[in-house]
Every structure is written in C-alpha cells, then in structure tokens.
Amino acid sequence: MPLFCIKNMNKHDFKNIIEPVINRNDCLLWGIEILRGKKKNTLRVFIDSYHNNVDINDCEKISKDLNYEPQIDMNLGEDYVLEVSTPGIDRKFFEITQLKDYVGHELDIKTKSIHEGRRKFIGKLIDCDDSKIFIVKSDNYEEISFKFSDIDLCRLKPDYNNLLKEYSYGE
Predict the structure, then answer these.
(1) Are 151 and 131 in contact (CB under 8 A)?
(2) Cα–Cα dist 23/103, whole Å
(3) C-alpha closest to that of 33 among 76, 69, 70
(4) What residues are paired with 147 via a beta bridge?
(5) pTM exceeds 0.70
(6) What is the Cα–Cα distance from 60 to 69, expressed in whole angstroms?
(7) What does each C-alpha distance from 80 to 45, 89, 95, 166 come to in angstroms?
(8) How far is CA 50 from CA 28, 73, 101, 134, 146, in A?
(9) Buried b (16+ CB within 10 A) or exposed e, 66-80
(10) End-to-end CA distance of the chain
(11) pLDDT of the chain along its 171 residues, tens only?
C-alpha cells in the first residue's frame, strides 16, 4: 500500500486494524482516540469485556500485540505513544449503541455548538435510539434530546457516594 494512503487513515481504518487484536484477547474495543502532538502522536485504545473484568494484564497483552501492527507504525510514525486502558468508571461514550446499557445513569455532555444557550449539560439518560439521546437535566428536571452526532463529549458521571457505600468494607 502506498505511503500516501496510509497517512490518510481515519479512525475507522484504525478500528479495522485494532479490533481483531483486541478480540483475539477476549476483550472488546470500547473506543479509540488519536492525538496529534507537536513531538509525538498518541494512540489511545480503550478496551472492555462483556464477560470478565479487564485488568492490567489484558491491557499489557493488547499493547504488546498492537506494537507488532506495521500499519499503525506507518501512519503514526515509529515514535508515538500507545496507551491501552479500560474506559474507567467515568467512561467516555464513542458510539450511541454504547449508551443503551446506561439508561438511568447520569451523563456529562458537551455539545459541538451552543444548544439552548449553552454547551455543557448534566442529566440522567432516559432513552436513546439510533441517532438521539434523551436526558432529564439535573438542574431543572427538564427533558431534552440531542443528536449523538451533535455531541462533542459524552461521559458517564458516576455517583461516587453510592460507589463508596457499595464497596465499603467498614460497615
């Protein structure tokens, strides 16, 4: 493949390279971020699992396997940073289909442009379909909807108090 074709790879192209590596390790691809830096590019790969908890060993195995993918090196250069991790408890949502399991949870949303006089919203996810999400805003309990394509960042907003109570051993 000519070099000019590889230099123009998009996230979908990276996904086609990365996802089979992750699947071979009994994990699933949650999302990809590509950060173009002044000195080094960074490729962030987020992994999860349907069945087991993902741990540091899974991240390490996948990171090592991805280091042997020449198409990644050819696009990002040989001197790039590869980060493989779980999405975490404040996970970012990369696709609308990921939200279906989080109905009833609070989200932190930042839109690409001003929506109802602002760009940042916090609310409980009440529904989602193939293109829109529906939340009840935390500040005034008003229902609002967004096209997922109009959202710049959508993140789970964990309830740390409940998490502490749930995992507290001192009771």
Answers:
(1) no
(2) 26
(3) 76
(4) 132
(5) yes
(6) 15
(7) 13, 27, 25, 39
(8) 8, 29, 12, 25, 27
(9) beebeebeebbeeeb
(10) 61
(11) 333 333 556 788 899 999 999 999 999 999 999 998 888 889 999 999 988 789 999 999 999 999 988 888 888 877 899 999 999 999 999 999 999 999 999 999 999 999 989 999 999 999 999 999 999 999 899 999 999 999 999 999 988 877 777 766 555
How far apart, in whole angstroms, are the C-alpha atoms of residue 36 and residue 43?
9
- What is the rounded CA–CA span in Å between residue 153 and residue 132? 14
Could you tell me if 28 and 50 are in contact, meaning their C-beta atoms sit under 8 angstroms apart?
Answer: yes
Place of tokens 């609070």: 106
Structure token pair of residue 47: 């992994």
In 25-69, which ranges are continuous DSSP H helix? Answer: 56-66
CA distance 77 to 105: 40
